[in-house]
Design a protein that fits this description.
Order of helices and strands: HEEHEEEHEEEEEEH
Low-confidence stretches: none
Structural class: mainly beta
Family: Belongs to the APC10 family.
CATH superfamily: Galactose-binding domain-like
GO biological process, one term: anaphase-promoting complex-dependent catabolic process
CATH topology: Jelly Rolls
Strand order of the largest sheet: 2-4-9-6-7
Strand content: 35-45%
Helix content: 10-25%
Keywords: Cell cycle, Cell division, Mitosis, Ubl conjugation pathway
Number of helices: 4
Shape: elongated
Radius of gyration: 20 Å
Organism: Papilio xuthus
Largest sheet: 5 strands, antiparallel
Function: Component of the anaphase promoting complex/cyclosome (APC/C), a cell cycle-regulated E3 ubiquitin-protein ligase complex that controls progression through mitosis and the G1 phase of the cell cycle.
C-alpha cells in the first residue's frame, strides 16, 4: 500500500504535479518555529512539531475542486523516534464537517518518503476541496508528532490536441499556419 519513493522522480516525469502550493494549509497545533513553513520548505532537516492531544491534524484546503492522486509524507524514525507517526488517517471532503476517511496507513519505523495512493472506489484519483491528514498514534506511545515534509500530487492532464494533424494542410493559405512558433 504505502512504499518508499521520491516524489521528485514522479514530478520530473511529467505525469504528476505538486499542487500543495495551491492550497491553504492549517495545523491543529504546533510549537513556535515548527509549523507549516517548516513542513513545506523542501528541507528534510526541518519539521512540523505538534503541541497538544492526539489526533494531530494537517488540513489542506483548495479553493477549487482539485484532483489528488498521491500524498507523500517524509518522516525519519532514526531521528525522531517517539515523535514519528505510526498510524495515519487520510480524510477528504468539501469542508471540515463532511470529511470521510479514505485511507488508513500503519507505519513501522519509517525513514524517508511514504507514498499514499489516493483513489476512489473505481481506483481513480479523487477530486476534492479538502484533505485532512490525521496522526492517530505515534511510535512508542509518543504524544507529539514530527513530520518533515508533505507533498500533494495531481495527475497532469494529457493534451487532447494532436500536433500531427497540422501536417495535413493542403492550400497555401493554410500552409502558413502549419508551424507553431
Amino acid at each position: 500500500m504505502a512504499s518508499e519513493k521520491d516524489p521528485l522522480i514522479s514530478e520530473r516525469s511529467g505525469t504528476v504535479r505538486e499542487v500543495g502550493n495551491h492550497a491553504i494549509w492549517s495545523l491543529s497545533s504546533c510549537k513556535p518555529g515548527f509549523g507549516i513553513d517548516q513542513l513545506r520548505d523542501d528541507c528534510m532537516d526541518t519539521y512540523w512539531q505538534s503541541d497538544g492531544q492526539l489526533p494531530h491534524l494537517v488540513n489542506i484546503q483548495f479553493q477549487r475542486k482539485t484532483m489528488v492522486s498521491h500524498i507523500y509524507i517524509y518522516t525519519d524514525y532514526k531521528l525522531d523516534e517517539s515523535y514519528t507517526p505510526s498510524r495515519i488517517s487520510i480524510r477528504a471532503g468539501t469542508h471540515f464537517n463532511d470529511l470521510q476517511e479514505i485511507e488508513v496507513i500503519e507505519l513501522i519505523e519509517p525513514s524517508g518518503w511514504e507514498m499514499i495512493p489516493i483513489k476512489d472506489i473505481h481506483d481513480r484519483p479523487i477530486r476534492t476541496y479538502m484533505i485532512q491528514i490525521a496522526v492517530l498514534s505515534n511510535h512508542q506511545n509518543g504524544r507529539d508528532t514530527h513530520m518533515r515534509q508533505i507533498k500533494i500530487h495531481s495527475p497532469c492532464e494529457p493534451t487532447s490536441f494532436d500536433l500531427n494533424k497540422l501536417q495535413n494542410f493542403s492550400t497555401v493559405k493554410f500552409q502558413q499556419y502549419a508551424t507553431i512558433r
